[in-house]
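Action item from last meeting closed. Structure (98 res):
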């Protein structure tokens, strides 16, 4: 079952996020991780918020252990994010070009 994940990284910056994405081998507007269905990020008053939809919570948690946790620490994000999970009723993806 798809799951939505909201991650609030207190004190983190968009510049640090860009470093994380680069170290993961992703590009802006490109494809994401296997099992990841949607992804976006925005600055907040306290840091950054990352919102994902994943095919399963297990797929996300494995990716977090293997990639998110070590790479965020590597770029200086020292605090673990506040993470919330939601069961997804529906999600949409990019449609064909108009």
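Sequence:
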């Amino acid at each position: 079952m798809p799951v939505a994940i909201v991650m609030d990284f207190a004190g983190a910056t968009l510049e640090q996020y860009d470093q994380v994405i680069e170290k993961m081998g992703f590009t802006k507007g490109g494809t994401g991780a296997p099992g990841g269905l949607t992804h976006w990020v925005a600055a907040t008053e306290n840091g950054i918020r990352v919102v994902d939809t994943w095919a399963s919570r297990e797929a996300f948690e494995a990716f977090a252990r293997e990639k998110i946790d070590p790479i965020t620490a590597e770029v200086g994000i020292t605090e673990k994010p506040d993470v919330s999970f939601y069961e997804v009723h529906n999600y949409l993806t990019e449609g064909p070009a108009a």
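Note appended to the action item: DSSP finds two helices and four strands in the chain.
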